[in-house]
């Protein structure tokens, strides 16, 4: 096993050290060349993807930094005793990539993906290797809780296979949301935040039975924008949120307006940058189509990208902005929670999955989002000790924080999977109670996913009929 880990580090470390944007530029260019795309076009697509990733990262950084300062002021003003600092996703990615096991898990999942493609068990080629850290952190947390590497690997592969299957299941919905024909859109995603889909769908079905009348009052965020103009735009939504949070933090009028305008700019730029992802994969899309027609008798191949290619949908940001104050309130009153939303106040780890399952029904997105937010808060609290210890071990503990502070992330993707890591890790110690808990949790997790897959296949059949 140590030889495999060493090999994985030798192969992937030079690439990972380049950073996410150069890494994905190289990967997309090489894959396009493999599908006989002209070099200039392949490189153009790769560079566009790198630009899109850089842009989305920069905007996320600006937005979370601005709101973190306001929320810190809110804590100081109220004296609320929530002692785990929400540092957002970027430090956790750095922490996870600091472990040699992450590259090992990456190698394992690359092999799994290739085998699934060869056996015709998936149509998705996952190129978003940077985001393997979302899956790796589950395995690392299981090891932290007591699992050996073999058990952790089995858990990672189990979840990873379901993620790849899920990317196929979601593909027609992405095409519908992007208003792009299936054969012209190769984009899907294996991102961890969509592993909340089964739970969201469970609540969505309950909504169908109990609250279907609420759909009469639902509205399309994009249509609302066209009807009321600026006041329903992402610009305006950012203004509203900035003013609300700034007032909670007791900021001066100057600070409040600065926060409001920062939020307005960021939310509008998210939509613009989301379109760059679509442009980036156009050369690859044509190459895949040509290859499938010539070599695979028309078999369609999908490309698994990071989630922001769907970021142009207004519902994602409308729901995220409404859920921000709801999450703040829940964090304050939720028993067992120790996290105050700072870096994760804009719930990007929550709303994309809500969009896919509800297909943009905004009221459902908000209601179900509010119900599921405690899972994220409890999960973030659960892993705080692991994150803090690992951050210090790899030299990634944020500067400026007290050394005794705990750190985590409020809306980190895969909250349910973190609980699985906890149970599997503790079960590995041989305690009967945890063995039973882990077995029951894994069986329930799989059964809910199987049911969800059945429902998605029915949805996809309707899409196919309506072509």
SSE arrangement:
Layout: H1 2-16, H2 20-34, H3 39-78, E1 84-86, H4 89-97, H5 100-118, E2 124-126, H6 132-144, H7 149-177, E3 187-188, H8 197-210, H9 221-228, H10 234-248, H11 253-280, H12 282-295, E4 302-304, H13 314-333, E5 339-340, H14 351-358, H15 362-382, H16 384-393, E6 406-408, H17 415-427, H18 432-465
Parallel strand pairs: 1-5, 1-6, 2-4, 3-4
Structural account:
70% of the residues lie in helices and 3% in strands. The protein has 467 residues and is mainly α. The protein has one domain (2-465). It has a three-stranded parallel beta sheet. Strands 2-4-3 form a three-stranded parallel beta sheet. Helix 2 packs antiparallel against helix 3 and helix 8 (197-210) crosses helix 14 (351-358). The chain is globular. The termini are far apart. The model has no long low-confidence stretch (mean pLDDT 83).
Share in helix: 55-70%
Strand line-up of the largest beta sheet: 5-1-6
How many strands, what sense, and barrel or not for the largest sheet?
3 strands, parallel
- Name the structural class: mainly alpha
Name the poorly predicted regions: none
Q: Report the span from N to C terminus.
A: 49 Å
The value of Rg in angstroms is: 22 Å
Q: What is the count of helical runs?
A: 18
- As for the number of domains, it is 1
Q: How many beta-strand segments?
A: 6
Overall pLDDT score: 83
- What proportion of the residues form beta strands (DSSP E)? under 5%
The run of helices and strands is HHHEHHEHHEHHHHHEHEHHHEHH
Shape: globular
């Amino acid at each position: 096993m140590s030889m495999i880990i060493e090999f994985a580090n030798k192969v992937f470390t030079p690439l990972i050290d380049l950073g996410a944007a150069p890494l994905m530029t190289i990967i997309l260019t090489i894959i396009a060349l493999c599908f006989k795309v002209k070099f200039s076009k392949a490189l153009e697509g790769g560079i566009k993807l790198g630009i899109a990733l850089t842009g989305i990262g920069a905007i996320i950084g600006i937005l979370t930094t601005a709101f973190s300062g306001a929320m810190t002021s809110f804590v100081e003003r109220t004296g609320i005793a929530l002692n785990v600092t929400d540092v957002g996703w970027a430090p956790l990615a750095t922490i996870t990539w600091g472990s040699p096991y992450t590259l090992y898990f990456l190698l394992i999942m690359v092999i799994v993906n290739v085998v699934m493609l060869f056996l015709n068990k998936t149509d998705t080629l996952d190129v978003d290797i940077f985001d393997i850290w979302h899956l790796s952190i589950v395995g690392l947390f299981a090891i932290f809780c007591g699992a050996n590497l073999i058990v952790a690997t089995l858990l990672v592969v189990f979840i990873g296979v379901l993620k790849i299957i899920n990317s196929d299941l979601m593909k027609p919905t992405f095409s519908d949301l992007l208003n792009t024909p299936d054969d012209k859109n190769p984009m899907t995603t294996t991102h961890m935040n969509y592993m909340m889909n089964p739970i969201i769908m469970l609540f969505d079905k309950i909504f169908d039975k109990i609250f279907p009348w609420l759909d009469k009052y639902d509205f399309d965020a994009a249509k609302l924008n066209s009807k009321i103009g600026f006041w329903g735009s992402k610009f305006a939504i950012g203004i509203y949120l900035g003013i609300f949070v700034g007032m909670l933090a007791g900021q001066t009028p100057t600070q409040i307006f600065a926060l409001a305008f920062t939020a307005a700019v960021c939310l509008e730029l998210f939509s613009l940058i989301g379109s760059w992802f679509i442009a980036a994969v156009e050369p690859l899309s044509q190459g895949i189509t040509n290859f499938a027609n010539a070599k695979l008798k028309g078999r369609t191949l999908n490309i698994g990208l990071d989630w922001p290619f769907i970021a142009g949908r207004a519902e994602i940001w409308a729901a995220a902005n409404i859920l921000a104050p709801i999450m703040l309130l829940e964090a304050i009153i939720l028993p067992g929670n120790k996290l105050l939303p700072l870096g994760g106040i804009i719930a990007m780890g929550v709303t994309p999955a809500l969009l896919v399952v509800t297909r943009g029904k905004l009221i459902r997105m908000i209601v179900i989002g509010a119900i599921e937010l405690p899972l994220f808060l409890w999960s973030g609290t659960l892993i705080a000790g692991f994150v803090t210890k690992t951050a210090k071990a790899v030299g990634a503990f944020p500067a400026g924080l007290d050394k005794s502070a705990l750190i985590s992330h409020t809306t980190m993707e895969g909250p349910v999977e973190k609980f699985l890591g906890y149970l599997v890790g503790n079960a590995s110690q041989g305690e009967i109670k945890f063995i039973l808990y882990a077995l029951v949790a894994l069986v329930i997790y799989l059964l809910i996913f199987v049911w969800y897959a059945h429902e998605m296949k029915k949805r996809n059949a309707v899409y196919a009929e309506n072509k």
